[in-house]
Design goal:
- It is a single chain.
- The chain is mainly beta.
- The protein has 2 domains: 279 residues, Tachylectin-2, Chain A (5 Propeller); 167 residues, Jelly Rolls.
- It is 4% helix and 38% strand.
- It is built from 3 helices and 29 strands.
- Strands 20, 21, 22, 23, 24, 25, 26, 27, 28 and 29 form a 10-stranded mixed beta sheet that branches. The protein has a 4-stranded antiparallel beta sheet with strand order 1-2-3-4, with no helix packed on it.
- The longest helix has 11 residues.
Length: 540
């Protein structure tokens, strides 16, 4: 079997979300923040860079640690680093832009944008300084968050910002709890939070020169030294979205910009918090029109799929697009460990049509692979490459670690597997190229108190998640049923076989004969049983 790559495309022990892919020379480099496996907050580890030849996306190589949080002078108080981006400067060096994070709500969005430099795209990078104005004062205009940068034919453009929806309320200025929350979270004064009231005309006009709200995506132009502001930051889209093309998909975070055939593509994470969207303009700093959703980590919106039918736990996503060896891809991330603190890198092929439009793509297991994964006799795959994982009532992650039970991708030591698989759970893989397969197996075990994954770290549950708690099932209310996995080739298709799962508490292989399958198909398992099980591998 030839070498292949699947989602997530980095090692299963690696958690690098917020992907910014860039081609430099004959390699593509994947930059992102760095979550910890089973971590208790975002971005707990130092930056690590992976790269691959542009003509072989199966050969991802770890370039090592590119930058350590302790290199930043604010490290002692703010130990973590949010999503970064890298650009090649006009001097031929490579520049890393990032913001220090800290604990949620304690300086989490109040730090300036920092810059580090290297002679090489993979680093290691050396701290250079904060982005600042010409007089030397640190630039903290608007909310400095999730910086992205591009070299636009010699002009260095910096994009950043975030947006919360409070200001859409007509009575926002009387909502003291909202105002205080923004003051604490963003490190802004009450006057700064309410500054938009002095310029109400900017709500409708979107005039980038109006000094309006601290919210929303903004752009600044940098000098060739890569740290000094050349042109003041200003909004690139209206920060209030009611009545605009952005109303249903407002900007939230993760600004990223690409220029394609003279058109600027603004890629961002929307307030829906599960999708990467895009807007286009003939200009880098104004007149953007919302165009659509590129990818959702729950496939919400794909072919009309609604939120209640999402294919997996949803939550924060962040990424961008890149042309690699003649093919466009979107890079995004998925959630694991029943939280959005352990996110993994995924990617899908996309197509930009003659009108510049990008149709929403389906999340898959094959991702960067040049076609479906090969299913031939003797081959096997990790169960955790499932792109569909749902019990029909999956939660949305938002600054939380869930303690309730639902199917999830997790680990115990070096074992990485799907846990808490309960009756009715659907586990799906897209797509396989079957070569005369007449049996399918799995490596599974019964879930017990001894092998169950129990989280013992700091617990956080955001109030925004309280209404999205899955309904716990009472497995004692139904007659006992022996565990089995129904095999399907379509999500709602007929069963072509059934794998009986034994009573072993250790990893055990189980198989079932099926009619001979050829060609490209999805693969779905539907679990039936009174006991919860865990799944480690798929066997052909």
């Amino acid at each position: 079997m030839k070498k292949q790559v699947y989602n997530p495309f980095l090692p299963l022990s690696e958690y690098i979300p917020d992907g910014e892919p860039h081609v430099f020379g004959d390699r593509v480099y994947h930059y992102g923040s760095h979550d910890r496996e089973g971590g208790y907050t975002y971005c707990m580890d130092d930056y690590v860079v992976y790269s691959a030849p542009v003509d072989d996306l199966t050969a991802w190589k770890c370039e090592g640690v590119s930058y350590r949080a302790e290199q930043d002078p604010d490290y002692a108080e703010f130990p973590y680093m949010y999503a970064p981006d890298v650009v090649k400067g006009n001097d031929g060096c490579f520049y890393l832009y990032y913001c220090m994070a800290g604990e949620y709500g304690i300086g989490g969005y109040s730090r300036p944008i920092s810059v580090a430099v290297s002679k090489y795209p993979q680093g290691p990078f050396t701290y250079l300084g904060h982005v600042h104005f010409a007089d030397g004062s640190i630039m903290k205009k608007y909310v400095c968050f999730d910086p992205a940068v591009m070299n636009d034919n010699g002009t260095i453009r910096l994009f950043y910002g975030t947006r919360y929806g409070f200001e859409e309320c007509n009575d926002f200025d009387s909502k003291e709890e909202y105002i205080k929350q923004e003051m604490e979270m963003f490190g802004k004064t009450r006057e700064e939070i309410l500054s938009y009231r002095s310029h109400p005309e900017s709500c409708k006009s979107g005039n980038p020169n109006d000094p309006d709200s601290v919210m929303g995506p903004v752009m600044a132009v940098l000098c060739d030294d890569m740290v000094t502001i050349k042109e003041e930051p200003h909004h690139i889209i209206p920060y209030k979205v009611k009545g605009t093309s952005f109303e249903e998909h407002p900007f939230f975070e993760g600004a990223s910009m690409r220029k394609i055939k003279g058109t600027y593509y603004f890629i961002y994470s929307s307030w829906q918090n599960h999708e990467l969207c895009y807007a286009t303009s003939a200009f880098p700093d104004r007149d953007f029109i919302f165009r659509g959703t590129i990818v959702s980590n729950g496939d919400i919106g794909f072919q009309g799929r609604t939120n209640d039918k999402k294919v997996a736990m949803t939550g924060t996503t962040h990424g961008s697009i890149e042309l690699i060896n003649g093919q466009w891809y979107v890079f995004y991330h998925r959630l694991t460990h029943k939280s959005d603190y352990s996110r993994q890198s995924c990617a899908e092929k996309i197509r930009i049509d003659e009108n510049g439009e990008i149709a929403q793509v389906e999340i898959t297991s094959c991702g960067l692979n040049n076609g479906p994964l090969e299913a031939e006799s003797g081959s096997h795959y990790p169960s955790v490459i499932a792109c569909n994982l749902t019990n029909g009532n999956m939660p949305h992650g938002s600054n939380s670690i869930y303690q309730i039970e639902f199917p999830n991708i997790t680990n115990k030591g070096e074992d990485r597997f799907i846990a808490e698989i309960e009756d009715g759970t659907v586990i799906g893989y897209k797509y396989f190229s079957f070569d005369r397969i007449n049996s399918i197996g799995v490596t599974a075990r019964i879930e017990t108190p001894e092998n169950k994954v129990v989280y013992n770290g700091p617990l956080r549950v955001d109030v925004r998640c309280m209404d999205d708690q899955p309904v716990a099932k009472d497995n004692n209310a139904v007659e006992y049923r022996k565990p089995s996995l129904e095999i399907r080739l379509e999500e709602n298709g007929p069963a072509i076989g059934e794998i009986a799962i034994g009573n072993s508490f250790e990893w055990t292989d189980y198989r079932a004969d099926i009619p001979v399958v050829n060609g490209v198909h999805a693969l779905f398992f539907v679990y039936h049983g009174s006991e919860k099980i865990q799944l480690k591998e798929i066997l052909f």
